[in-house]
Design a protein that fits this description.
heterotetramer, A: mainly alpha, B: alpha/beta, Rossmann fold, 2 domains, seven-stranded mixed sheet, five-stranded parallel sheet, 14 strands, 17% strand, globular, disordered N terminus
C-alpha cells in the first residue's frame, strides 16, 4: 500500500464523489423544492451522457459549439421531465404517487435512450488528449500518475457547487426559488410565479446530472445501465442530513472515497461496504452530518 | 370534475391492457404464445421441403433482445447458416431440419422461461441452451425431467458436473480453458507473478478457480491481494487498475464477459499500464474489439474462436459467414453451428431423428469430429472440445498465434 | 380534592421567542377551564406542552398529581389526556366509522393482538348514540369523512375525544367555523362531558360569549405570561386583560 | 341512526364468487409454461400483501420486500437442498422461515425506523443493496453467483405437488389465507393506527398510538410475508439466484401494489397477477415493452393513484349516492318526521 496507490485511489474516489455530489445536489433541490424523491436521477445522468456523446461523436461538433447546444438539450429535457412526471401530480393526495411516477419516468428514460441511440454501449473519445501520443492526458508528479479526466471532474464539480451556492445565497432568483420551495401557496400570494421557479429547479437539476454524465462518459462506456450510480447519490444525501446541500455534497464525497478504498480488501463486496457505512451512520446520527432534529408543528 | 373521471375511466381500460408489465421482460418467439403442448411454431422455413420425407426440429435459445442483443444476432445467424448447409446437403437422415428460436433477453428468469418453453414443444428433439452458464445450470433440472439433450452455450465447468446425462457442451469448459490460460500466460507471455482480474458471476469465478489451480500446478502461487473481483456490470475499474499498477505483479490475467472486457481495455489503456496482458475468450470477441477500439491492441487471449483462424474447417465457416451476412463471425455463431453439426452426426449414428434417448447415447460415440471451432471427441464430463486458439489483438484484428491443446 | 391537571412554572422558548414563561395554573375534575389570550400568546404551545408534543425547558406538568413532564405523548394520551385540534385531524381515506373507532381503541386500550382476534370492546354504538343526541346531524357510517361539513367535523372530533374516556380534554377553538346553533350544541356536549363524566376541560376559545357562559374558571395568557386568573365576572373587568386585548388608550392613561 | 352493516359486505361476497370461478377455470385453460408464470404471480402477491400493509395502511414506502424474499429463499434453499450436509423437511422449514424472519425483520425494523419519511425509504434501499451484494458474492451461505439448485419441493403431511397445476391449488389456498389475514388487519386496531400514522403522526400520538412500535410491527409483518413468498419461490422453482433480489425487482413489487389499488385486498391480488402475466400477453410489443411500462406507471399515478380498486370504489360510491338521492326524491314525507 504505497503512496502511489493511496493518492490515485483518493483522486479516483473524490472524482467519483463529485459525480455523486452533482446528483445528490439535484436530489436535495427536488426534495426541498417539490418534496419529491427523484428515482430517475441516475437516468437523467445517463441521458445527459448520451446527449453529449451524440453531440461530440455523431455530429462531431467542436467543444465551443457542443456546450451551448447540450445546455439547450438539458433545458428541453428538464421541462419535458417536469411536465410528464411531476406537474400533473403536484397536488396529488397520495405522497407515494409522485415518487412512483419518477420510477416510471426512470424506465421510460432508459427505453427512450435505447430507442434513439440503440442498446449497444458507445465509447467516447477522452476530453483531455495528450497532443503527442493521442492517448489520455496524464499528470505525472514524481512516480504518481493521475489522469487529467479525474482532475477535470473535480474542478467542474467544485465550480458547479460554487454556482449553486451563489444562486441560492446571493441571487434574488435563488431566494425566490427557496421561497416557492418553503411554501408554494404563500409564494404565489407574493407574486412569485411558482410554475417558473419549479421549471427553473428542474432545469438546474437536469443540468447538474447531465454534466455528471458528460464527465464520466469518456471514462466509462455510455450505456443505458449508467442509472445504477444513483443509489450511491441516495446514500450521500442520507449521510449528509435532512435537506441541506452542504451535507449532501460531503456525504457524496465520503461515499466516493469509501467506495474507492473498499476495493483494496473486498472488491466484490464494494456495494455492501458503501451501504453498510450508510446504515451504521444512520444508527449513530439519524439526522445526518449537518441535519438537526426538526420537530414538526402540530 | 365529470370529464376528469371519464378520462380516468378510459385510461383504466387502456392501462390494464398496456401497462404494468413486470421488469423481467418475457421470452419472445416470432409466433404468438402457443400453449406448450402443441408443436413449435416454425420460426424459419428453409427452402422448399420437396425431396424430404418429414422434418426434424432443433431449438435455439438466444438473447434476441435486451443488453446482450449483439450476442443474440451471432447465435441466430450461426444457427441459420447450419440450417442452410444441412438442408442443402440433404437434411438429417433424409429429413428436413427446422429451427425454432426463443429469446432469453438479459436475465435469468426470462432465460429459464425460454428454455422451459422450448423443451415443452412436442416436436423439439434437442436444443441449444443459453450462452450464459448460470442460466444453463438453472435449467438443468428441467432438462433432466424432460430427458431432452441440451447443448449448453455457457462454458462453466459446473454445468455438466450436476450428473445430468442430457447436458452437453461443445465449447471448452472453464476447468480446461483455465489450464490453457495458465499455460499460455507462463509459456507464451513468460509471466511469473500475475494479477488476476475476474468477474464475480458464475463464469468468472469458475474460470478464476481453475486458472489458479493450474498456475499452482505450474509452481506459481497467486496471493489473495493480487486477485481483484468485480461485479458483472461494474464500470469503474480505475481503483483496481491503479492498485495493479503499483503492485509488484509482472502480468495480468483478466476474466469476464464482452462488455466488461471492453471497459477494462479502455481504462487500462488510459492508465498507461504496460505489463503483458492475457484475457479469457471475450478479449478476442468482435464485441470487445469494436467497442474498445485501439485500446484493445496488445491483448492476448485464449479464445474459442477468431476470424483469422488457420484451420481449414474454421476458414470455410468464417468465409461462408462473411459471404452470407457480410460481417465477421464470432464465437456464439460458431458454437451453435458446431452444436447443430454434432446433433446431425448423433442422429446419423443413431439412425433416428425422433428418439431423444438414442440420440443422446449416440453423442457418446463421436470421436475426432473436425468442427469449425475445434476437433470434438466424447469425454465423461460431456465436453467435446479438445483445443482453443491463442490470439493477439493487433490493429483491431484477433490474429491467431497457435492452438493450445488439452488432449 | 386535588386538581386533575396542574402546571407548575412551565417555561418554553423557541430561540428568541418566549412561548411560555412561568405558567402555573390547575384544572379541577369536572370543571370547564377557559384559556384565553390574544393571537400568538402561546395558547397552542401550551396545548402541545400538555399533550407531550413539545418538552418544556423547565417546570413540570402533573396529571392527577403524577409528574408527566417527560412522559412521551402517546403514553400521556393513554393516561387520559384527550385532544382536539384547531383544524380537525381525521383519516382522509377512511370511513367515519373507522375514524370514531380510533377513539374507542384508545378507551379500551386492548393490545393489537387482542383486538385482532375479534374481542369486541365496549359497546360502541349506544355510547355514540348518547353523545350524538346532543348534535342534530346524523351520518351514514360508510360515508367518506370528507363528505361532512367543516362544522360537523369539528363537533365529531369532540365526540371522538369523548369516546376515549379521557380524564382531561384539551379543546382547541371548537367554536371556530360553527354557526350559533352548533355552538350551543357543543356547549351542551362539553357540559355533559364535564358534569356527567367528571372530565376536566381546558378550553381555548376566541368567542367571548362562549367562554363567559360555560367556563367556571379562566386563565389569561399574553406573550407566554399568565396575566390574570379567576371567574368570568372577575376576568371581564380586569384592567390587564382589557389592555392585552384592546390595547391602552394613550391620552387617557396619562390623566 | 344507520344500523351497522353486517360483517360480510355484498361486495366481498362478489369477490368470493369471482375467486371460485378463477380457481376452477384457470388450470383447465393453460398448463406447463404459462401456469408456471401464473404461480410466480401468486407467490409475488404474498410479498405484495406485506407491502400493502406498509405502504397502503402505514404510508411508509419500503423496498425491503426483496431482501426478505431473499432471506426466505436462501434459508429454504440451504435447508432443503442438502448442501449443508443435512436435509430438513420442507414444511418444518416453512415454519422456521416464519420464525427467523420475524426476529430479523423486527430487529432491522427497529434500526431503520430511527429514520422517518424519505430517509426511511433511502435506508431500505441501502438494505436491499447490502443483501443483494451478499447474496451475489458470499459463496458458503448463498452459493455465490451460481445460486443454489435442486431445492426439494414442498411436502406437507406426505403429499407434495407434482406439477404446476397442483402447485397452483396450494398457492391459491396460501394466498387466500394471507389475504384474509391482511383484511383482518385492515379492520382491526392495528390497521386503524397505521392509517392514523399515514395521515398525521402528531394526531396519531395524541390518540395514544405508539408511532415507532406500530411502524416496526408493520415492517415485521411485511418482512414475514416477503420471507414466506421467498421460501415458496425457492420450493416452486427449485433454484435460487441473486438475480431475483435486485433493486429493479423491488420497484416491480411496488408497482404491483399500486396498480391493483394498494388499500384494497382484492386489488393487490389483481395487481400482482396482472403485472406478472402482462408480459406474456403483450408478446408482440417486445421492443417497446419497457417504454409502455414506464409511461404506464406515470399514467397510473396521474389518473388512478388508488389503482383499479380505487376507481371501482369511486364508481360504486357514486352509484350508491345516486341511488340514495333517488330514494330521497320519491319518499320526501318519510324524511321529515325522522328528526
Amino acid at each position: 500500500m504505497n503512496i502511489n496507490t493511496i493518492v490515485s485511489l483518493a483522486v479516483n474516489g473524490i472524482s467519483m464523489g463529485m459525480i455523486y455530489a452533482l446528483m445528490a445536489m439535484g436530489l436535495i433541490l427536488l426534495i426541498r423544492a417539490i418534496g419529491v424523491m427523484n428515482f430517475a436521477q441516475g437516468d437523467l445522468l445517463m441521458f445527459g451522457a448520451f446527449i453529449t456523446c451524440w453531440l461530440t461523436v455523431d455530429l462531431k461538433l467542436p467543444l465551443w459549439a457542443m456546450i451551448p447546444l447540450s445546455i439547450v438539450c438539458f433545458v428541453v429535457v428538464g421541462i419535458i421531465f417536469m411536465f410528464t412526471a411531476y406537474w400533473p401530480l403536484r397536488n396529488a393526495s397520495y405522497p407515494a404517487a409522485t415518487v412512483i411516477s419518477t420510477m416510471g419516468a426512470a424506465m421510460a428514460l432508459k427505453e427512450i435512450a435505447t430507442l434513439i441511440w440503440g442498446s449497444l454501449p458507445r465509447s467516447m473519445p477522452p476530453l483531455m488528449k495528450n497532443p503527442a501520443t493521442g492517448k489520455v492526458a496524464v499528470l505525472k508528479i514524481g512516480s504518481i500518475t493521475i489522469q487529467w479526466q479525474f482532475i477535470l471532474t473535480i474542478i467542474v464539480g467544485s465550480v458547479f457547487i460554487y454556482l449553486v451556492f451563489v444562486l441560492f445565497d446571493k441571487l434574488y432568483a435563488g431566494r425566490m426559488m427557496q421561497a416557492a420551495a418553503q411554501d408554494k401557496y404563500a409564494a404565489e400570494l407574493l407574486g412569485i410565479p411558482t410554475i417558473l421557479t419549479t421549471m427553473a429547479t428542474y432545469v438546474i437539476v437536469v443540468a447538474l446530472a447531465s454534466t455528471g454524465g458528460y464527465m464520466i462518459a469518456p471514462i466509462f462506456m455510455v450505456s443505458n445501465t449508467l442509472g445504477t450510480l444513483q443509489l450511491r447519490a441516495f446514500a450521500g444525501v442520507v449521510i449528509g442530513g435532512f435537506g441541506n446541500i452542504k451535507g449532501a455534497i460531503l456525504g457524496s464525497l465520503l461515499i466516493g472515497v469509501v467506495e474507492a478504498f473498499s476495493t483494496i480488501q473486498f472488491s466484490q463486496y464494494k456495494d455492501a461496504v458503501v451501504f453498510l457505512v450508510l446504515i451504521v451512520f444512520l444508527l449513530v446520527r439519524p439526522q445526518g452530518l449537518f441535519g438537526e432534529k426538526i420537530a414538526d408543528k402540530a | 370534475m365529470k370529464t376528469r373521471r371519464l378520462i380516468a375511466f378510459t385510461m383504466a381500460i387502456a392501462m390494464t391492457a398496456l401497462a404494468g408489465c413486470s421488469t423481467t421482460a418475457p421470452t419472445q418467439t416470432q409466433a404468438p404464445a402457443s400453449a406448450s403442448s402443441e408443436a413449435a411454431p416454425q420460426a424459419s422455413t428453409g427452402n422448399a421441403s420437396a425431396g424430404f420425407d418429414g422434418s426434424v426440429t432443433f431449438g435455439v435459445v438466444a438473447p434476441i433482445t435486451g443488453t446482450n442483443k449483439m450476442v443474440g444476432e451471432y447465435v441466430v445467424n450461426g444457427a441459420k447458416l447450419a440450417l442452410k448447409d444441412i438442408n442443402a446437403a440433404g437434411g438429417i437422415n433424409g429429413k428436413e431440419l427446422k429451427l425454432v428460436f426463443e429469446d432469453e433477453v438479459d436475465n435469468q428468469q426470462a432465460s429459464v422461461n425460454a428454455m422451459v418453453k422450448i423443451m415443452n414443444y412436442s416436436d423439439v428433439v434437442s436444443f441449444f441452451g443459453s450462452t450464459y452458464s448460470a442460466n444453463c445450470i438453472a435449467a438443468s433440472p428441467n432438462v433432466l425431467e424432460k430427458k431432452i439433450p441440451m447443448f449448453a452455450g455457457g462454458s462453466s465447468a459446473n454445468i455438466p458436473k450436476k450428473g445430468n446425462p442430457y447436458v452437453w457442451q461443445d465449447r471448452m469448459t472453464d476447468d480446461q480453458s483455465g489450464v490453457l490460460l495458465a499455460k499460455a500466460a507462463t509459456e507464451n507471455l513468460k509471466i511469473k507473478n500475475p494479477a488476476i482480474l475476474y468477474s464475480t458471476e458464475s463464469f468468472g469465478t469458475g474460470l478464476r478457480d481453475q486458472t489458479i489451480n493450474a498456475l499452482k500446478a505450474l509452481g506459481i502461487v497467486v496471493p489473495e491481494k493480487n486477485q481483484y473481483g468485480f461485479v458483472n456490470d461494474e464500470k469503474n475499474f480505475a481503483p483496481m487498475i491503479s492498485q495493479i499498477q503499483n503492485s509488484d505483479v509482472d502480468g495480468l490475467i483478466a476474466i469476464g464477459n464482452q462488455m466488461p472486457a471492453a471497459v477494462i481495455c479502455q481504462q487500462i489503456d488510459a492508465a498507461g499500464l504496460t505489463i503483458p496482458m492475457i484475457g479469457s475468450s471475450s478479449w478476442a470477441s468482435a464485441v470487445c474489439r469494436q467497442n474498445a477500439g485501439a485500446s484493445a491492441d496488445g491483448w492476448y487471449a485464449v479464445a474459442d474462436w477468431t476470424v483469422e483462424v488457420s484451420t481449414d474447417e474454421g476458414k470455410t465457416f468464417a468465409k461462408e459467414y462473411k459471404d452470407t451476412y457480410n460481417a465477421d463471425s464470432d464465437m456464439p455463431a460458431v458454437a451453435v453451428y458446431d452444436s447443430i453439426m454434432l446433433f446431425k452426426k448423433a442422429c446419423e449414428i443413431a439412425k433416428t431423428t425422433a428418439d431423444k434417448e438414442a440420440i443422446n447415447n449416440a453423442l457418446k460415440e463421436i470421436k475426432d469430429y473436425k468442427g469449425a471451432m475445434s476437433t470434438y471427441t466424447y469425454s465423461e464430463n460431456h465436453c467435446f472440445s479438445t483445443s482453443q486458439f491463442l490470439t493477439v489483438n493487433k490493429d483491431g484484428l484477433a490474429t491467431m498465434v497457435g492452438t493450445v491443446k488439452t488432449r | 380534592m386535588n386538581p386533575i391537571l396542574r402546571l407548575d412554572k412551565v417555561c418554553k422558548r423557541f430561540g428568541g421567542v418566549i412561548a411560555a414563561d412561568d405558567v402555573t395554573f390547575s384544572v379541577m375534575p369536572g370543571e370547564i377551564h377557559g384559556l384565553i389570550g390574544p393571537n400568538g400568546a402561546g395558547k397552542s404551545t401550551l396545548m402541545n406542552l400538555i399533550s407531550g408534543i413539545y418538552i418544556p425547558d423547565s417546570g413540570s406538568i402533573f396529571l392527577d398529581e403524577k409528574d408527566i413532564s417527560n412522559v412521551p405523548s402517546h403514553m400521556r394520551a393513554r393516561m387520559g389526556i384527550g385532544r382536539t385540534f384547531q383544524t380537525p385531524r381525521f383519516l382522509q381515506r377512511s370511513s367515519i366509522r373507522d375514524n370514531l373507532l380510533l377513539g374507542t381503541d384508545l378507551a379500551n386500550q386492548m393490545g393489537y393482538l387482542k383486538s385482532y382476534f375479534g374481542k369486541k370492546g365496549s359497546n360502541f354504538e349506544e355510547e355514540l348514540d348518547r353523545l350524538m343526541k346532543y348534535l342534530d346531524f346524523t351520518f351514514d357510517w360508510e360515508e367518506d369523512i370528507n363528505g361532512l361539513a367543516y362544522g360537523q367535523r369539528k363537533q365529531l372530533e369532540i365526540v371522538r375525544s369523548m369516546l376515549t374516556h379521557p380524564k382531561i380534554m384539551l379543546v382547541d377553538e371548537p367554536a371556530a367555523g360553527l354557526n350559533n346553533k352548533e355552538i350551543d350544541d357543543v356547549m351542551a356536549l362539553l357540559n355533559f362531558a364535564a358534569k356527567q363524566f367528571g372530565i376536566g376541560v381546558l378550553l381555548i376559545e376566541h368567542s367571548m360569549d362562549m367562554i363567559m357562559n360555560i367556563c367556571e374558571d379562566i386563565v389569561v395568557i399574553c406573550f407566554g405570561k399568565v396575566i390574570a386568573m379567576g371567574g368570568p365576572s372577575k376576568i371581564s373587568c380586569d384592567e390587564a386583560v382589557i389592555e392585552a386585548y384592546l390595547g391602552r388608550d394613550l391620552d387617557a392613561s396619562n390623566s | 341512526m344507520k344500523k351497522m352493516k353486517s360483517y360480510i359486505k355484498p361486495s366481498s361476497f362478489l369477490i368470493f364468487i369471482a375467486l371460485a370461478i378463477f380457481v376452477a377455470l384457470v388450470p383447465a385453460v393453460n398448463q406447463g409454461y404459462s401456469m408456471m408464470i401464473l404461480n410466480l404471480g401468486l407467490i409475488y402477491s404474498i410479498a405484495t400483501y406485506g407491502l400493502s400493509v406498509m405502504l397502503g395502511l402505514g404510508g411508509q414506502l419500503s423496498f425491503a420486500a426483496v431482501s426478505f424474499m431473499g432471506l426466505g429463499a436462501y434459508f429454504t434453499a440451504n435447508l432443503c437442498s442438502g448442501r449443508l450436509g443435512f436435509w430438513v423437511d420442507t414444511s418444518l422449514t416453512l415454519v422456521l422461515v416464519l420464525i427467523i424472519s420475524t426476529v430479523v425483520a423486527f430487529l432491522i425494523g427497529m434500526i431503520l425506523f430511527r429514520l422517518s419519511g424519505t430517509y426511511f425509504t433511502f435506508g431500505t434501499i441501502g438494505l436491499v443493496q447490502v443483501t443483494w451484494s451478499f447474496y451475489l458474492s458470499y459463496k458458503p451461505l448463498f452459493g455465490g453467483p451460481d445460486g443454489i439448485s435442486n431445492v426439494a419441493t414442498l411436502r406437507i403431511f406426505g403429499w407434495s405437488p407434482v406439477d404446476y397445476n397442483q402447485w397452483f391449488y396450494v398457492l391459491v389456498v396460501i394466498v387466500l389465507i394471507v389475504a384474509i389475514l391482511v383484511e383482518r388487519i385492515r379492520r382491526s386496531q392495528l390497521g386503524r393506527s397505521l392509517s392514523a400514522i399515514r395521515d398525521n403522526e402528531i394526531a396519531a400520538q395524541t390518540l395514544g398510538i405508539n408511532v415507532y412500535m406500530t411502524k416496526v410491527i408493520a415492517f415485521t409483518i411485511a418482512g414475514v410475508l416477503a420471507a414466506l413468498a421467498g421460501s415458496l419461490y425457492a420450493m416452486h422453482s427449485q433454484f435460487v439466484s441473486s438475480d431475483m433480489f435486485t433493486f429493479e425487482r423491488a420497484t416491480s413489487y411496488i408497482i404491483m401494489a399500486m396498480l391493483g389499488g394498494v388499500n384494497n385486498t382484492f386489488g393487490v391480488f389483481v395487481g400482482s397477477v396482472l403485472v406478472t402475466m402482462l408480459p406474456e400477453w403483450l408478446r408482440g410489443m417486445q421492443r417497446y415493452l419497457q417504454l409502455i411500462y414506464g409511461v404506464g406507471v406515470i399514467l397510473l399515478m396521474v389518473f388512478m393513484p388508488m389503482g383499479l380498486a380505487g376507481l371501482a370504489g369511486n364508481f360504486g360510491k357514486s352509484i350508491k349516492r345516486k341511488l340514495r338521492s333517488a330514494a330521497v326524491k320519491n319518499a320526501p314525507a318519510e324524511k321529515e318526521d325522522a328528526k
